[in-house]
Amino acid sequence: MNEKFLPLLATIAVFVAIFVIGGLLYNNFMSTQVLGDILADNAFIITAAFGTTFVILSGGIDLSIGSMIGFVGVVIANLDLAGWHPLLAAALMLGFGFLFGALQGLIIDICDIQPFIVTLAGLFLLRGACFMINLDSVPIQNGFVGWFSGLGIPLPGGGVLRSSAIVMLLALAGGIVIAHFTRFGANVYAIGGDRTSATLMGVPVRRTTVGIYALGGFYSALGGVIYAFYTSSGYPLAGSGAELTAIASVVLGGTMLTGGVGMVAGTLFGGMILGLIATIIIFNGTLNGAWIMIVSGVLLFVFIVLQRSLVGSLRMRGAA
Amino acid sequence: MAQDAPQGRRFESPRASFDASGPKKPGDGDEVGGTCLEQTIVTARIEMLGVSKAFPGVRALDGVDFRVEAGEVHALMGENGAGKSTLIKIMTGAVQGDAGEIRLDGQTVRIGSTGDAQALGIGTVYQEVNLVPTMSVTKNMTLLRQPKRFGLIDWREARRRARQRLERLNIASQIDVERPLGSYSVAVQQLVAIARALEDDTRVLVLDEPTASLDANETALLFGIVRDLKARGIAIVFITHFIDQVYAIADRISVLRNGRRVGSAPTSELPPLQLIPMMLGRELETTERRAASESSAIHGEPILVAEGVGRRRVMAPFDLTLRPGEVVGLSGLLGSGRTEVAKLVFGAIKRDSGKLTIAGAEVKSASPARSLHLGVAYCPEDRKAEGLFAELSVRENIILGLQTKRGWLRRLSFDAQQALAEAMIEALGIATPDADKPVGQLSGGNQQKVVLARALTSDPRILILDEPTRGIDVGAHAEIVALIRKLCAEGLALLVASSELDELVAVSDRIAVLRDRRKVGEIEERAIDRQTIIDTIAGART
């Protein structure tokens, strides 16, 4: 058994454990119906988190995700008003997300500024742009959106794998291929593991950095498209704080914030864990919603401590 | 010293005869083996002619000629700032020279990037293992050249290639290529780095301090592989600070100093006694020994006693004593362990053996904070990285050490800080318009004085100075030396690590001599002079 799968297995084990706990607490909890709902409800944020996984793997951070989700929704809704087909608008926004991310990556690398600040600027910029366009929620009228969000593959046991979840799983497949089966992906791991070494080994750091943030922008725009189609609207406040949830999903998924270690597949389960916790607490009905954040916080904390010790044991052996 | 003459002549000749002899086919160097008689007529594997490089304010290389034969291990020696790393960087494409020519097997080549160098068959293994510890061995070995199948990376084939590369060094059986590189010892990581750098067509392999963090067994393993590569006709450039290793493995030695090549000779013709003066050079000014009367302040019991203090892989156990009013010098080549001794005594490096007694009390677990409380102050070698906060003012920098000693609860009032800073500026003659100027804006000499001032505000009994005059001008140099003498006349015990022999000769009452991370001798006051230190470093006297 390869030790690189350990964090992923830990994440899956936690996911299963929480699912079982939910099943013990409530009847009907352990069903494909609940699973399908969690997948569909969290698809937008998990999709965006796939992009964040690349950014964090490279040792960076992307805070512009939530604003991108909101901005994409608002623009699609307004283009819908102008008579655009939603798919065309979505394609436009995916391109925009890619370019916006690339621009952030370019600034980060050329000016050698911390990604935190650059993407924080991106966060303000895009959120501000949302409010410039609209102050209120704008419904998307085109019948395609309603038809699309109604699509789904029935699961055994009465659940449905909704279209948003399907798009998310396709995005996951793409992410896995990019991360593990392309040179770009290998370069991301190299830069995150040891930037100096990667440079000396000849990794094209600038091109890769631009690519990483472009990918991050693309995935968050895709998250925005999913959200807009799922809710059939564009709302300027949509996705507020989503960047932090995405980062939490990535970390719970076993990716190290220091970069170089982690897997895209882990992020799916990390995001699902957060979704499960929310669902369990909502199922209870009497518990305050604040408990969602408290439990998520505790879990995140435990995970980071676990990771720290895991990496500690890895580094100790090689240290001089 | 007459070191320049004979080697210089030997080296000028190949250039003159080079064109007459005509370029030979690549690959025929294998028969040469590096015998020095033939080398004036054969084509070198790699030859650098008149290479110069200037960085802003520094002339790093000045018309350096350097040639390495096929199947030769060529040691490149020199102290800090000699130009070794610049020369290597030019050879490996990391830096472009301002002037000069590089010939590989007789062909003039342009090495514009590290990629160019790799394509030409010049492999490099850097001092620190320059691989990614979090990635698997396979990923490290195949990065940027992964085999592809249907446009995607074929990991099965990648693993096979990684094993194949390791097999060239006969180490494939010891390494699981799936595991993260960081889970292996530094020695194995180093071997993986070499395996990565080696291609089928590698002609030149540069090993930049590959043994810096290896122990004796690991070094032996590495040398076995180096000999193997040598037998295959690869030209090996070997950079190290360990004199013994040079004599163990190198066929030839070239010495750089201040950006010029000062000599080059077969190892057998260049014993350490000649090599070391070549590396150290000689300052023009003659230094006077401190008058014996000045050192009469030495009295009483030792204030610091180190018995068998050391740390594995860092510094072999050593003994050292220090009395009030005494200056003990630490001498040795770059990398010999000067800084390590200073840091072990101060507690900045934790010792794993031995006993350290300061002022009669045994120090069980040494740490910088503990040492400060015991009255030990340390001025580090690298002012910018370890000694000063460039953005903070002169006053804040001076106060820092004292604040550490007092603890953060008992904060000094602003007036007290100001008074103290001004007293220090006055006492040490720090040239600054006022105490609030950021330290980063002062000259090197004045920055060093601020470091000293900070150490002195805590009123130490023992002061450790690591390279107190590095990078400062001649005038400031003299002032620092005068200051050291004055401090010790006041009864302070000083431990001074320095790469400049003349400086140590000028200030020391005793000199501990280090070589290859080991204390090899101690020179008493009467015997201190340049030659004795060189002899001791070279191992001619102990």
UniProtKB/TrEMBL annotation, chain A:
Transmembrane segments: 6-26, 38-57, 88-107, 113-132, 167-189, 210-230, 236-257, 264-283, 289-306
Keyword line: Cell membrane, Membrane, Transmembrane, Transmembrane helix
One MF term in the entry's GO annotations: transmembrane transporter activity
Entry protein name: Monosaccharide ABC transporter membrane protein (CUT2 family)
Membrane-topology annotation of the record: Multi-pass membrane protein
One Pfam family hit: BPD_transp_2
PANTHER family associated with the record: ABC TRANSPORTER PERMEASE PROTEIN YPHD-RELATED-RELATED (PTHR32196), INNER MEMBRANE ABC TRANSPORTER PERMEASE PROTEIN YJFF (PTHR32196:SF63)
Source organism of this protein record: Roseiarcus fermentans
Domain of life of the native organism: Bacteria
Localization, UniProt: Cell membrane
NCBIfam families referenced in this protein's UniProt entry, alphabetically: PRK11618.1
Entry keyword Transmembrane: yes
Gene Ontology CC terms, in alphabetical order: plasma membrane
InterPro entries reported in the protein's UniProt record: ABC_transp_permease (IPR001851)
Coiled coil: none
TrEMBL record, chain B:
Keyword terms: ATP-binding, Nucleotide-binding, Repeat, Sugar transport, Transport
A GO molecular-function descriptor: ATP hydrolysis activity
Region (Disordered): 1-34
UniProt keyword Oxidoreductase, yes or no: no
Top-level taxon: Bacteria
InterPro entries, per database record: AAA+_ATPase, ABC_carbohydrate_import_ATPase, ABC_transporter-like_ATP-bd, ABC_transporter-like_CS, P-loop_NTPase
Record SUPFAM superfamilies: P-loop containing nucleoside triphosphate hydrolases
Domain ABC transporter: 46-283, 298-541
SMART domains assigned: AAA
Keyword hit for ATP-binding: yes
Family: Belongs to the ABC transporter superfamily.
Name of the protein this chain belongs to: Monosaccharide ABC transporter ATP-binding protein (CUT2 family)
The species this protein was found in: Roseiarcus fermentans
